[in-house]
Amino acid sequence: MRIGIDAMGGDRAPAEEVRGALAARQFLSDDDRIVLIGKGDLLREHLGSPGAWSDFIEVCHADQVIGMGEAPVEALRTKPNSSLALMARLAAEGKVDACISAGNTGACVAAAQMRLRRLRGVHRPGIAIVTPTFYGPVALCDVGANVNCRPQHLLQYGIMASIYVQAVCGVANPRVGLLSIGEEDVKGTSLVKQTRQLMKDDPAVHFIGNVEGRDLFRGVCDVMVCEGFVGNVMLKLMEGMAEGVVKALLAELSAGIPSQERIIQKAGDAIAAKYDYNVYGGAPLLGVGGIFIICHGASNYRGIMNAVRVAKDFTTGRVNERITELLGQREGSQDA
Amino acid sequence: MRIGIDAMGGDRAPAEEVRGALAARQFLSDDDRIVLIGKGDLLREHLGSPGAWSDFIEVCHADQVIGMGEAPVEALRTKPNSSLALMARLAAEGKVDACISAGNTGACVAAAQMRLRRLRGVHRPGIAIVTPTFYGPVALCDVGANVNCRPQHLLQYGIMASIYVQAVCGVANPRVGLLSIGEEDVKGTSLVKQTRQLMKDDPAVHFIGNVEGRDLFRGVCDVMVCEGFVGNVMLKLMEGMAEGVVKALLAELSAGIPSQERIIQKAGDAIAAKYDYNVYGGAPLLGVGGIFIICHGASNYRGIMNAVRVAKDFTTGRVNERITELLGQREGSQDA
Predict the structure, then answer these.
(1) Facing residues of A206 across strands?
(2) What is the Rg, in whole angstroms, of the alpha carbon atoms belonging to chain B?
(3) What is the b/e burial string over A142-165, where b = at least 16 CB atoms within 10 angstroms of the residue's CB?
(4) What is the CATH topology of the domain spanning B123-278?
(5) What part of B 46-75 touches A (C-beta under 8 Å)?
(6) I need a surface site. Which of A14, B83, B238, B318 has the fewest CB within 10 A?
(7) B237 with A214: Cβ contact below 8 A
């Protein structure tokens, strides 16, 4: 397969994107290629001697760059030659089989929706992020693609994310929890109540009921479904808190056991590594007619490298085919 | 003042409620009284010899108890003699000046709204919880009273929570952030966009713009405003995560420095104490015509004791008077 990487998107682009592409060689079969999209001269400069990469990396020149703060649709319209817009076009034309970007998330979602369309039967694409926990990975979906959710959208996130964690994390029969503010039926918004009923009645989800924020860390479900606004807030809250709590604990300890600073630092690093978004290699936009992996803006080369692994697993696990098998036959599904 | 405590509400009731009432003596003036509401015989048994408490605690008998899982309005209707329903009635009759409960949150909100009504000009009451961070306390409002927010509701949460953190945390000119999923104007739901405009135009809030989940730990604002559903999810996510990350880090460390387990445990306890909801003594339901402090269901005696302190500060700081001064004069405010 041919895997496109938007080499200009992330906060550390193109250095980490290029390094990630080089490191991703380990995941590629003989006929796989990485297509690095961005300013050609700059990319070749970062890539170094062609002997090290020209057998598995191609450079595809794109003049423009979409910034993190730009309005997504406007940016795509005014910058047709941006690395992101070009990558999405290549995907639409079948010239790459997967897209990876650590750039502007909104622009990624917009580009994917415009160029790749939706899989048959899917109402709205959703971003599924795999969160590491002590009890194993939990996929949280949606974390920001869709801030105007209907019950059918949430139901489909449950179905699509189940297929995804099966394929990529090897979870056999993923338990799906619906995020609410209490386990009882009576609590939550009307969106939650209606979704709950849909999930209860649908054999395509292994629904375990409502869950709460704290349940993400308690091993009660493998997939947690929520609106994009809430999911995005959760994602960023976890990021801020991991940073904060670990910092505070290390400070306490260093004061208590000054002689052991090195060991304490190592333990801190071990925890940080466990929670490192780079290990999970980005989050797929589930439901689009192709493979689009969105990486954290601050991704380092490991984030990009692991996104290549995710793209490979996505293909091997036939995620899109299985989504279409389950959702493509449903009546009136394209209208909602 | 007379401070009512629902002695039957929390997970550890009545033992911790009684112990908290006894420990709260330190915060009381000579003419302050605590009114413990619940099963009279049981409470007297826990209180022990009257010599130790009869000068500042009164026991008020209530037959029934509302459970954590009960539907709020239904429970209040069918259990008029529950400790919670009785406490709210006493408040409505002016027989207690403040209410404290670690019981069913939904039932607390419903009881307060039914019996205490709203302050003049307030659209919807909201629960404000003070979150400890490295940069000082941040009040998050609403965390669960209102899951159907309008822009005016969120604006008022910003105003009311500002008054509250001024009075209780001593923050001079609280900076208010509006929770969204990006700092830019274009991101977020239509609720966020409309609220943003209202806040920009209102001199009663010191509005600093949109903030994200991670900003809770970055010292950028003193008040963070959001819908009740999102706020409640955040609250519970933080609880679950603090538990989880600290546990994992301690495990790493204990393996690395087996000889120092006691010191490591101590550091863990110090962090846990910093994040302990019991220190903050519960969250006020802002905007009701009285004082209603809702404590965490798992509160221990310190949670109850500190809720008494919060009730005192609330009165001393003239929180309700100042809310009425700011909101009571606004046109058409009662209708929305």
Answers:
(1) A175
(2) 20
(3) bbbbbbebbbbbbbbbbbbbbbbb
(4) Isopropylmalate Dehydrogenase (3.40.718)
(5) 69, 71-72
(6) B318
(7) yes
CB contact under 8 A, B252 and A271: yes
Structure tokens that stand for A34 in this block: 């990485």
What are A138's strand-pairing partners? A131
Preceding peptide of B14 cis, ω within 30° = yes
Residues of each domain in chain B carrying CATH 3.40.718.10? 1-122+287-317, 123-278
Q: Return the closest-CA partner of residue B83 out of B160, B130, B17.
A: B17
* B184/A239 touch (CB, cutoff 8 Å), yes or no: no
Buried b (16+ CB within 10 A) or exposed e, A178-188: bbbbbeeeebb
What is the distance between the alpha carbons of residues B224 and A164, in angstroms, rounded to a whole number?
34
**Cα-based distances in Å from B220 to B138, B140, B223, B283:** 9, 13, 9, 21
- Residues near A39 by beta carbon (within 8 Å), at least 6 away in sequence: A8, A14, A61, A62, A63, A65
Kindly list the residues from chain B whose CB atom is less than 8 angstroms away from the CB atom of residue A256: 263-264, 266-267
In the block, residue with structure tokens 């020149």: A61
From CA A10, how far away is CA A6, in angstroms rounded?
9
Two tokens, residue A19: 């390094």
pTM of the model: 0.90
Residue A224 sits at φ, ψ, to 5 deg, of -120, 125
Q: β-strands A223-225, A138-141: how paired?
A: parallel
Give the CA-trace dihedral at B150, B153, B159, B163, to 10 degrees: -150
Q: Which residues pair with B138 in a beta bridge?
A: B131
Provide the 10 A C-beta neighbour count for residue B188: 22
CATH fold of A1-122+287-317 reads: Isopropylmalate Dehydrogenase (3.40.718)
Is A114's Cβ below 8 Å from some Cβ in B? no
Residue whose token pair is 């649908």 = A202
Looking at beta carbons, which residues of chain A come within 8 Å of B186?
Answer: 71-72
Which residues are B58's β-sheet partners?
B35
Q: How far is CA B322 from CA B118, B165, B287, B317, B331, in A?
A: 14, 12, 11, 9, 17
Supply the DSSP string of A213-267, one letter for each residue: GGGGGTTS-SEEE--HHHHHHHHHHHHHHHHHHHHHHHHHHHHH-GGGHHHHHHH
Chain B residue with the nearest C-alpha to that of A147: B189
Which of A317, A304, A314 lies closest to A277, judged by CA? A304
Contact check, Cβ <8 Å, A271/B249:
yes
Q: Which pair of structure tokens corresponds to residue B45?
A: 């048994």
Distance separating alpha carbons of residues B265 and B146, to the nearest angstrom? 39
Helix H segments across chain B? Answer: 15-23, 40-47, 72-78, 83-92, 105-116, 151-169, 190-201, 228-256, 261-274, 277-280, 301-316, 319-327
* CB-based contact, A243 to chain B, within 8 Å: yes
Query: Which pairing describes strands A292-294 and A283-286: parallel, antiparallel, or unpaired?
Result: antiparallel
Q: Could you read off the pLDDT tens digit of each residue along chain A, which spans 336 residues?
A: 999 999 999 999 999 999 999 999 999 999 999 999 999 999 999 999 999 999 999 999 999 999 998 989 999 999 999 999 999 999 999 999 999 999 999 999 999 999 999 999 999 999 999 988 878 899 999 999 999 999 999 999 999 999 999 998 999 999 999 999 976 666 789 999 999 999 999 999 999 999 999 999 889 999 999 999 999 999 999 888 877 777 777 777 777 666 677 777 777 777 667 666 666 678 999 999 999 999 988 899 999 999 999 999 999 999 999 999 999 988 654 444
Domain A124-279: top CATH class: alpha beta
- Is the minimum CB–CB distance between A273 and chain B shorter than 8 Å? no
Name the 3-class secondary structure at A192: helix
